[in-house]
Amino acid sequence: MLKTLFDHFSVLYHAILPKSPNIAADHALKQEEEIYKKSGKLTYRNACISCAASLKRRPAPDSLLHDSVGTEADLSTRAEARKSRKALRLTSEHLEPYLMSLDELTAWGYLVDVPEGPGGTEPHLEGKIAKCERCTQPFLVKRREEADECIHHWGKPYTTKVNGEKTRLYNCCSRPVADSEGCTHGPHVFYESSAADLHARHAFSLLQPASPEPKRTALDVAAMDCEMVYSTGGMRVARVSVVDGAGLQVFDEFVRMDEGVEIIDYITRFSGITPENYATAVLPLAAIRRSLDALIDAHTILIGHALDNDLKTLRIVHHRCVDTVVLFPHRMGAPYRRSLKDLVREHLGSLIQTDSTVGHSSVEDAAATLDLVRHFIINKPPPKPDASSS
User: Fold this and answer.
1) What is the chain's mean pLDDT, rounded?
2) Rounded CA separation 9/26 (Å)
3) Whose C-alpha in 160, 208, 254, 385 is 20 to 30 A from the C-alpha of 224?
4) What are the pLDDT digits (tens) for 36-48?
5) Confidence of residue 355 (pLDDT cuts 50, 70, 90)
6) What residues does 170 pair with on adjacent strands?
């Protein structure tokens, strides 16, 4: 019967066998052991036949993380884990122990105070000189239709071995980092990180104080993600998505650029923003912030992945934050951060951001971030109480 199971796994896994040649044999052995432990002499054969029939009914996987990959016990375990996550509505009681301190917020790049001055005094740098984030050369900031061409690599460098020697390659084209010529043509763009510069483009502000119950409409817990584009005012938010503690979408809006600010590059490969969907944007950031006031306030616990970036692009200063880059730290420690895509693959056994042609979805990313925190709460022991408080 082992041969029968192996044959059925081999047929099921035909598309992924090149990536993992031993997977059919490994899963056949594991499946046969599961059946043997649960069956008697009289039921073993029928259990194997029934299992083989169920394998035939499974959809063929196209990746090692597909729901069809695994033994019957594997599939059952994953289904139970998904069910447990979906059943968990995150509350402030779950998350209070994991709120970042002001020192932690600062260490991870969050702004903890609103910068001085009125803000918004210089919304854009059109017609001025800036440093291109892509090629590092100074350039004159121009709107999209007038922008000068920049030859660059859109990917990131990574280390690998070539002929036994370590070398750095770009993941966009596999060319050596030492090769100065880029692989992509696009406009020059700039990125700003200093609080003063960001405040000058659009003013930061705190979230509204929490209203007294029962008038309060804001959520206790919300997960948030933003998509951004390059503009004459630097990198600016173009889409905002929010899900509640149960994972339900409660907000998803495209954001118009502020008056006088023009988009230079939609970076659709990453943002998912296209000229077509951006054309549906009605509200600028100030109006989006007013809309968000009904959903999040100063008491709301905000969840995100590298949430500091989302809060900066929204020009929000907030102190009640749970960040998955902190809950799931990089093996090399701060300031290194693991990608959301890798964390979801490792801890949830799922794939996100799979189509590089259409870019990311902030709704998908916000929901995935919430699921990661659910997974953390279910599987991690509560933090030890502070000895000084006992």
Assistant:
1) 92
2) 10
3) 385
4) 999 988 899 999 9
5) low
6) 157
Strands (E), 262-334: 263-265, 301-304, 316-317, 321-323
Integer angstrom CA distances of residue 88 from 27, 81, 83, 363:
31, 11, 9, 19
pLDDT at 387 over 50: no
How far apart, in whole angstroms, are the C-alpha atoms of residue 236 and residue 229? 6
C-alpha to C-alpha distances, 57 to 15, 54, 148, 265, 294, nearest whole angstrom: 16, 5, 55, 46, 47
Picking from 29, 16, 101, 27, the residue whose alpha carbon sits closest to that of residue 63 is 16
Selection from 362, 360, 358, 382 nearest residue 370 by Cα? 362
Answer for the pair 256, 287: CB distance below 8 angstroms, yes or no. Answer: no
* CB-CB contact of 61 with 12 (8 Å): yes
Task: Say if residues 12 and 55 touch (Cβ distance below 8 Å).
Answer: yes
Task: Return all residues near 211 (Cβ < 8 A) that are at least 6 apart.
Answer: 217, 218, 297
For residue 84, what are its two tokens?
């447990």
Amino acid letter, residue 60: A
- The whole-number pLDDT of residue 359 equals 65
For the whole model, what pTM was predicted?
0.86
CB 62 within 8 A of CB 16: yes
Beta bridge pairs of residue 266:
none
CA nearest to 309, candidates 112, 104, 154, 110: 110
**What is the C-alpha to C-alpha distance for residues 224 and 204, in angstroms, rounded to an integer?**
18
- Distance in angstroms (rounded) separating the CA atoms of residues 218 and 206: 15
